[in-house]
Fold:
Amino acid sequence: MHSELIEIRTGSEETVVDLTSRIERFLTDAGAGDGLLHVFVPHATAGIALIETGAGSDSDLLAQLREVVPADDRWRHRHGSAGHGRDHVLPAFVPPSTTIPVLDGRPALGTWQSVCLVDTNVDNPIRSVRLSLLTG
Structure:
């Protein structure tokens, strides 16, 4: 098994960060053949999504999350910035991990799929993502 913890700067605004090129670099550095790649964000306020990026889907996702889990004062969890309680609900909608097949050293993603970190927590500008390659 190969594993690496990478740091991602998400800044002070809600964001979707495409991790695909970092994942491809990790697989190359690991000398990957066939296996499974597990992507995990060890934070209670961020998630991992497989979506198309660059065509508006990332912005659409953030807009929909604002609608479904708004950053207002309805949340019982109240530390941090206003509406921060919704960030703790986010992983129920965008899970903190995903597993992707790896074939011949490349993530077996669909044509328009990218692996993305979804971070709505404006209080945490730096995130960690654990990449773990399992081979047989």
Notes: The helical segments are 20-29, 57-68, 85-93. Strands lie at 2-9, 15-18, 35-40, 46-51, 97-103, 106-107, 114-119, 126-134.
